[in-house]
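Researcher: Next entry in the queue.
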Amino acid sequence: MNESSRLFAEAFRDPALAQCLLRSIERRATRPMRLMEVCGTHTMAIFRHGIRALLPSNLTLLSGPGCPVCVTDTQEIDAFIALSQREDVIVATFGDLIRVPGSYTSLQKESAEGADVRVVYSAMDAVQLARERPDKTVVFLGVGFETTAPTIAAAVLAAREMGLANFCVYSAHKTVPAALSALMANPAVKIDGFLLPGHVSVIIGLNAYRDFFQAHGIPCVVGGFEPLDILQAVDLLVAQIDAGTPALANGYPRAVTADGNQRARAVLAQVFTACDARWRGLGPIPGSGLAIRPELARYDAAQRFQIAVVEMPPPKGCACGEILIGARTPPQCPLFRKRCTPMDPVGPCMVSSEGTCAAYYRYHDANGTG
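Model: Structure for this entry, 370 residues:
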């Protein structure tokens, strides 16, 4: 077995099935097709296993707005930083967010200057921190999609149960289905099919995309994250496009159901309500955010602190916004591998472990052709 065959066998637990799927895709991809994955975990899996290189040259995989940290708007990052600069506040956050640049600085830089910024592994860690530090208000930075939002909702309910007055959440959560409609409305983006996110779909279920599919009639397949899962989802999408029979299909039935995790959705509904939200790259999208309900306003950091920040333009030359909607690829950004590297990122797409620029930097060669 040569090195190429060995690597292929290691990546795919059933190499024969993988070869069958690749032949099926090649047979049906009879014209240029552009598929977008809208999940950062998909993006990293596709790069890590070299899936792009296995597909026909006329089949393009685009990385969409599936990285939670990446789509967080600069104004929200600036608000997080402003909170960290308050002496009466401890900011608790997941690790990816700490290095994301705001307009002038980052949470990491503020921490180096003395701000109390703590990296936690869960929202409940932040609740525990609030119990231990009654002299400070602990603000958890709520960033993410429907996957992480239920755990943060549960933390709010736990804080209420404990009677903690010094815990709150700054909610910058966003929901996936509304972003799909915004992508379809963007004239700069040409998409023939969507590889829908597996983790999000475990929570919201296949039916959460029903309105979007009925409105746009574009092929949609929920996919898992193993290499075979991704090939199967791509094969389903290519078959739909080739036959001209768009459908909303579940390619991840071992984890995703029609209605999702109803307990998680109930917790979400108990704490959050839909609101308008700004997305990096997509701008404002009505009803695409999650705000803490008015009856839980004491746990809403945005209401408690009324942080006002000035809207600033993105860094000159940074193409993060265009990369997030599939209009450009990282090698087409003039800063990629030059001013913008994982050690000194200019935009969040280079920071996050799910960011497209980080994936290109790690898995492609210096020309972006790996």
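Model: Residues 320-363 form one domain.
Researcher: Noted, moving on.
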